[in-house]
Amino acid sequence: MVDSHSYQLPKGWHKTFYTLWAGCFITGLGYSMTMPFISLFIEQLGNYSKFQVNLYSGLAFAMTFIAQAIISPYWGNLADRKGRKLMCMRAAGIMSLTIFITGLAQSAFFIIGMRFLQGLFSGYINNATALMAGETPHQRSGWVMSQMMTAGTAGNLVGPLLGGVLSSAFGYRIPFFITGGLMFLVFLSTWLLTNEEFTPVSPKAMKPMKDIMRALPDVRLIITMFITTMIVQSSTMSIDPIVSLYVKSLMPHSHTVALVAGVVAATPGLGTMLAASKVGHIMDNIGPQKVLRWGLISATILFIPMTIIPNAWSLAFWRFLLGIASAALLPAAQTVLTLNVPSEAFGRIFSYNQSFQAIGAVLGSLLGSTISGMFTYEWVFASTGLILLINFLIVLIFNNRKKA
């Protein structure tokens, strides 16, 4: 999996890369093994109306990201002083507990509360990505960013299928217990097997964030990438909370809803995993900004047919194509940040990016659950395509101003 190009890499780079890749894979696996079915889990915990189930599902998704948006700058500051490895260990260790305990839930509000607590300490994938960004030569940044995203999306591919099988056979609690155990293994492997070339910085020696932003060669570019991260994440999260409910509406009398919903939830991950390496090489050759523009317009177009699909398998097909386009979205934005931010500010810049990602997740999950509760599921896809079109126009306008 490691690229064949020869560059001077820090000692232990390969072991660190594989360990963090595996950690991101398991994090994505655990998330997608549990969250696509959270609405069905909540539905079993009380006599809730359709609107309540949609609302509580949206809140369960959103609470983690509300917490992340609030706390990420603090963790980013700590990462720049103490290193990203410690942040990865913190995320994996606490998530192993909160996810396991969520499986014991007896009400929707307990799930919502645990998801908020999880959000306060989560962020494994973002910190692992920032760690690898700081350890990797810039010539291969695009490829490495794509590979790190591939880890999470590979987990997102396997997770819904495994979660669908486990939920159908043993109930919706078991995937939470398994995920908690796996995240504890991630904590141990990150602690024992990864290495970070990091020199601690004292609080007094750290530049204030406003000084770092002033010193950046193009601060508008960084802000544009923050906004892109927010909108792209919003487009993903507007769909995720309602996928299983939408599949259920398409096949109301079927006994295999959880399994089919797992397949539908997994298909974007398959598309992204197949395309990520190639897209990463293209980014290194022609630049991430050009790749980002093509990814945004492609994703916008792909949401159009999702508003008129006849069955769940058609939805799975279009989401597979969307996954291919998604390989050119967040990795491209992260690569732009990597190439335009000094290494001593990686932790804080990536934490701000995570805050924008979290805000996007909140807006997206609430958008999806509210629109689907008040109107129809098709309207969710239409509105999501529209916000991606707005994102494309923002990036295009910035690019044209830069050329002017």
Order of helices and strands: HHHHHHHHHHHHHHHHH
Largest sheet: none
CATH secondary-structure class: Mainly Alpha
Poorly predicted regions: none
CATH superfamily: MFS general substrate transporter like domains
- Which overall shape is indicated by the principal axes computed on the Cα atoms? globular
Q: How much of the sequence is in beta strands?
A: under 5%
Kindly provide the radius of gyration, computed on alpha-carbon positions and rounded to a whole number of angstroms: 20 Å
Tally of separate domains: 1
Main location: membrane
Protein name: DHA1 family multidrug resistance protein-like MFS transporter
Organism: Lactobacillus colini
Membrane topology: Multi-pass membrane protein
Can you put this structure into words, describing what you see?
Its main location: membrane. It comes from Lactobacillus colini. This is DHA1 family multidrug resistance protein-like MFS transporter. The chain crosses the membrane at residues 20-41, 53-71, 91-112, 176-194, 215-236, 256-279, 291-310, 316-337, 349-367, 379-398. The protein is mainly alpha-helical. The protein has a single domain, classed as MFS general substrate transporter like domains (Growth Hormone, Chain: A, Up-down Bundle). It has helices at 13-34, 38-44, 50-82, 84-102, 108-121, 124-135, 141-170, 174-193, 209-215, 219-237, 243-250, 257-286, 288-302, 312-326, 330-340, 346-374, 377-403. Helix 1 runs parallel beside helix 7 (141-170), helix 6 packs antiparallel against helix 16 and helix 7 (141-170) packs antiparallel against helix 15. The chain is globular and about 60 Å long. The mean pLDDT is 82.
